[in-house]
Amino acid sequence: IYNVMQSFNLMEEITIDQIVLGIVKFLVVCFGGLALGVSFGLLSAMFSRLSTQLKVVQPIIIYGMAYLGFLMAELFEFSGIISIIGCGLVQVHYSFQNIHDKSRLSIKYFSKVFSTFSEVLIFLFLGLSFVRQTHVWHTGFILWTVLLCLVYRFIITFGMSFLINRLDTHRVRKIGLDEQFIIAYGGLRGAVCFSLVALLNPIEIPQKDLFLTATLSVIVFTGFVQVRSNVFDLTYIAN
């Protein structure tokens, strides 16, 4: 969607044909990335099965195949993120059954360390963006952005929970309304959104500074207001 919207921004006129092509591209990018991820996940399962005596090589196979799937997806302009997700799902079910316990433990802790490092790094850049002198404040735009993020998150959370509760007949327990509310209200802080906004070309998107300010405002609201309220809600439910 990010790339499609950037392409639409460069067009003088957006026709119905272009909208249909944008939807088709979205589906191709998603399912193409998923197919590549699953394929490399199956390859990692096969290689891990052949390397049962090589404990040192097994973590390299797991990470190498996931990263190779990401690179191939980006090379063919598919979704690298969805490729990693698809590869990870296959690896959890198949590859992890073939590797040694020590290799599995190494992968687990290295992933935690790398995840924490990445999160600290991106929020460090986010903090540095707060002290920039190029912020553009538009009260109406920012308030509508925060409101619509909340509304659509509630719609998606309650809609998907309804479908899961209705269609998944093998679930041991249904997703309750209180849990749906916590999931919807305890929203994301927006680190990925901040990264995408930071990559915008200011020549093609003159409103980049306004978008960056709005994104930081959403992050502050979800990171301080919602998270603090979410703690009290969780305590109330637990009691």
UniProtKB/TrEMBL annotation:
Organism: Lottia gigantea
Descriptive protein name: Cation/H+ exchanger transmembrane domain-containing protein
Keyword terms: Ion transport, Membrane, Sodium, Sodium transport, Transmembrane, Transmembrane helix, Transport
An annotated Gene Ontology molecular function: sodium:proton antiporter activity
Domain annotation Cation/H+ exchanger transmembrane: ranges: 2-226
Subcellular location: Membrane
A GO BP entry: regulation of intracellular pH
Cellular compartments per GO CC: plasma membrane
Membrane-spanning residues: 20-44, 78-97, 109-129, 141-163, 183-203, 209-227
